[in-house]
Each structure stands twice: as C-alpha cells, then as structure tokens.
C-alpha cells in the first residue's frame, strides 16, 4: 500500500544529505555501468572473432608441405615435401564421406599477365570449382571455374572485383575479354569477390588446375589442398570430427612421403575451427573475468549503501526511540529504513543501466578495432543484473534496519 508520509520522509532525508546520497548512488550506478560496458566489450570481442573466422568457411582446413626437420628411414632432414595429384586423388577417394568440398591449388612461377600491352601484377592460381565455397567467395558476374573447364584444360580465367575495378574500369563488364598469360590467351568468364576485409585475396585470378599444370610446366605438382567438412549439430561435434579428419590426413601424408611421425613441421595444416576453439575459450575466460570485476564493483556499491544506512540509523537513533515509545511496530521501522535503501539502489542502478546501454548503442556500431565488433549486451541480462542489484540493496538495507529495531527505547531517548 502506498504510504505518502513515508515517501516524504525518504525525500526529506535525501534532501538533508544530498552529497552523501549522491556519492552512494554514484558508487552503485558506476558498478552497473562498468559491468554492462565490460560485458558489452566481451560480446564485441566474441563478435569480432566470429567475423574473422567467417571470412572463410568455418569447417574448412588448408594443407601445404614444408621441409622435414627429423631424419627418418635413412633420409636426411631438410627435404622439401612436394604434394602431387595422386595425393589429392587418394585422399578424396578414401575420405569422400568425411568432407563436402575439396580443392587443390597450383601456383605457376614466372608468369606474366598482359592486357592490351599493359603488364598486370596479379598472381595466377590453378584450382577447381570447389574453392569458391571453401574460400567463401561470391560471384559478381559470370561464373566460376567448373568441372568441365578442368576436364577440358580450358583457357578461361576468373578475376576479382579489385582487378575488374583497376583494369577494366572503362568497360561495363570484363566478361568475354581476353588476358594474355605467358603468351596464351585466356577468356574472362567470371568476376568474384571476397567477404570481409582481406583484400589480399582479391590480388589473385583463377584458372583451371589442369590448365595451370600443363601450360606452365607444373606436371602433377600441387602446392595446397583445401577441404571443407560438413557442419554438425554442435560446435564440439564439429571440432571432434575436424580433429579426426586432420589426424587421418596427416598420417596418410607422413606415410606417403616418408616423414617421421613425430615431425610436426613437414606438413602444415591450418585449421580455423581449432583456432576458433582456442579463441572462444579465451573469450569465455575474458568474459568471466569481466563478470568477476563487475560483480565486485557492484558489491562495493552495495556495501556503500549498507554503510550509509548504518549512518542513517545512527543519526536517527533518537527518532527511532520516540517512534517505538509511541507504539511503532518493528516492521514499520524496518520498512522505513529499507525503503530508503531500495529507492537509492534502484534509482542508481537503472541510471547506470540507461547510461551504459545508451553509450553502447551510440558508440558500439562505430567501433573499428581488430577482434572487436559492435560491442553490445543483451538487455534482459543487463536488466536482470539491476534486479539482482536491487535485491542486494534490499538485503544491504535490512541489517541496518534490524539494528534499528533492536535499539532500546531508554538508550535511544538518551542519545544526543
């Protein structure tokens, strides 16, 4: 039931102690403000990490050879491992049910690209059609490399949006134009783009893998193999499947190329999912740290409220004694003290919430920092935190109120 006189008493007490009330409220509001900002940046870091890994297919992995570092089967360390078509064919045949897409790459060396007597400084890469999905590329115009191109050793090329804008800016479309690659004419059949901010990926143009190997003395050599595994129901399932596939792939390549089982440098496998697992674990730790910091900041504010209420009880000892002498019930006195504590805590908590949410709403979308993207916090989580703060403020006000109830009337009346 609304008690006007009690609220008048609360506001009178606040007016008499403006600075004390302001500082108490500031400690509570700053606790909520700091917690929400920390949680917002924790979510922003998680968003940033997720965006970094979305630039390529999340379940993909890249394989490339390096030099051996351990002597094995009479072979000296320092051997350069060379992947070949048969390696790719054997892996795709043996593990065809374990992946969705598979591509292979060959990088021709000493290749010159010319358009209308202008030398272009872009790299040429031989591949197949699955690379588009694995690299998370989109088509702006035309089509990508397809299986027919690979089977027929077609002289076709797919260029990037960057190449289109820099070389063919005077044309409506580059589709159908020809590039001269080391003396051979290649017809442009498509234009691709890259999601994300990695412009280095758009410094390349793609031709069929077979054409690259035959035209530029590649033989059956390949430089990279890429695989994309299926997405499963849970992150942990995908990590387990990804780890198993990686282990099988590594064992095959080490056996095939006479690499010591313990030599972890001869075959390099970059696995975004494993990297994501480590980052997400790190993000979880950071967010937990933010929660702990915010929690103790709020506790400091609640303790401040409790201390102020103890001071209020001390200052109003004589008043409380008079109330008890006139027949005031214990719960009436408890309610008087707790109402003030709850009021100060609630107003301060929601003020801190409004300012912190407003700041994240205004500044968050404009934050451009590596691995931090759109810092934000779920409103229900922040609101629940304030509700818990009010409950804590209620508890903080109860103990001083209980102390007030236990004041003896005679002692209270003697208080100066």
Key phrases:
416 residues, alpha+beta, 2 domains, 6-stranded mixed β-sheet, 4-stranded antiparallel β-sheet, 54% helix, elongated, Macrolide_Exporter_MacB, transmembrane
Structure notes:
This protein is an alpha+beta fold and about 425 residues long. The chain folds into two domains: about 5-55 and about 280-415, no CATH class; about 60-270, no CATH class. The protein is built from 13 helices and 16 strands. It has helices at about 5-15, 20-55, 85-95, 130-135, 145-150, 160-165, 210-215, 235-255, 270-315, 315-325, 330-365, 380-405, 410-415, and strands spanning about 60-65, 85, 100-105, 115, 120, 125, 135-140, 155-160, 180, 185-195, 205-210, 220, 225-230, 265-270, 370, 370-375. The strands form five sheets. Strands 4, 5, 7, 8, 9 and 10 form a six-stranded mixed β-sheet that branches. A four-stranded antiparallel β-sheet has the order 3-13-1-14. Strands 2-12 form a two-stranded antiparallel ribbon. A hairpin with a 2-residue loop joins strand 15 and strand 16. Helix 2 (about 20-55) packs antiparallel against helix 9 (about 270-315) and helix 9 packs antiparallel against helix 11.
How are the secondary structure elements laid out?
Layout: H1 4-16, H2 18-54, E1 60-65, E2 83-84, H3 85-94, E3 101-105, E4 113-115, E5 118-120, E6 123-127, H4 131-134, E7 137-142, H5 147-151, E8 156-160, H6 161-167, E9 178-181, E10 184-194, E11 204-208, H7 209-215, E12 221-222, E13 224-228, H8 235-256, E14 267-270, H9 272-315, H10 317-325, H11 330-363, E15 368-369, E16 372-373, H12 379-405, H13 409-414
Parallel strand pairs: 6-11, 8-10
Antiparallel strand pairs: 1-13, 1-14, 2-12, 3-13, 4-5, 4-9, 7-10, 9-10, 15-16
Helix pairs in contact: 2-9, 2-11, 9-11, 9-12, 11-12
């Amino acid at each position: 039931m609304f008690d006007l006189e009690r609220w008048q008493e609360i506001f009178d007490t606040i007016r008499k102690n403006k600075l004390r009330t302001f500082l108490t409220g500031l400690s509570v509001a700053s606790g909520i403000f700091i917690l929400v900002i920390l949680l917002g940046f924790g979510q922003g870091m998680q968003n940033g990490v997720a965006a970094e890994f979305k630039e390529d297919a999340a379940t993909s992995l890249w394989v490339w050879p390096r030099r051996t570092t351990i002597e094995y089967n009479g072979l000296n360390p320092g051997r350069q491992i060379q992947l070949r078509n048969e390696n790719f064919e054997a892996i795709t045949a043996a593990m065809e049910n374990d992946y969705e897409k598979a591509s292979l790459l060959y990088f021709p060396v000493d290749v010159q690209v010319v358009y209308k007597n202008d030398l272009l400084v872009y790299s040429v890469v031989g591949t197949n059609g699955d690379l588009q999905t694995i690299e998370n590329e989109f088509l702006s115009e035309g089509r990508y490399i397809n299986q027919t191109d690979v089977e027929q050793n077609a002289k076709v090329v797919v260029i990037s949006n960057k190449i289109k804008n820099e070389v063919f800016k005077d044309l409506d479309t580059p589709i159908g134009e020809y590039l001269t690659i080391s003396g051979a004419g290649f017809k442009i059949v498509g234009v691709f783009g890259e999601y994300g901010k990695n412009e280095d990926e758009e410094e390349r143009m793609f031709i069929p893998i077979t054409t690259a190997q035959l035209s530029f003395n590649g033989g059956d050599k390949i430089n990279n193999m890429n695989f994309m595994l299926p997405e499963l129901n849970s992150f942990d399932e995908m990590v387990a499947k990804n780890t198993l596939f990686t282990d099988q792939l590594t064992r095959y390549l080490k056996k095939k190329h006479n690499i010591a089982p313990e030599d972890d440098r001869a075959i390099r496998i970059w696995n975004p999912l494993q990297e994501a697992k480590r980052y997400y674990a790190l993000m979880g730790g950071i967010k937990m740290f933010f929660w702990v910091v915010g929690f103790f900041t709020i506790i400091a504010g609640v303790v401040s409220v409790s201390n102020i209420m103890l001071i209020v009880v001390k200052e109003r000892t004589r008043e409380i004694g008079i109330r008890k002498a006139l027949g005031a019930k214990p719960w009436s006195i408890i309610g008087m003290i707790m109402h003030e504590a709850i009021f100060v805590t609630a107003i301060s908590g929601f003020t801190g919430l409004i300012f912190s949410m407003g700041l994240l709403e205004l500044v968050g979308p404009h934050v451009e920092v590596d691995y931090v993207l759109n810092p934000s916090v779920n409103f229900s989580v922040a609101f629940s935190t304030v509700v818990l703060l009010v409950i804590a403020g209620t508890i903080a006000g109860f103990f001083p109120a209980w102390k007030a109830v236990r004041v003896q009337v005679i002692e209270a009346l003697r208080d100066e």
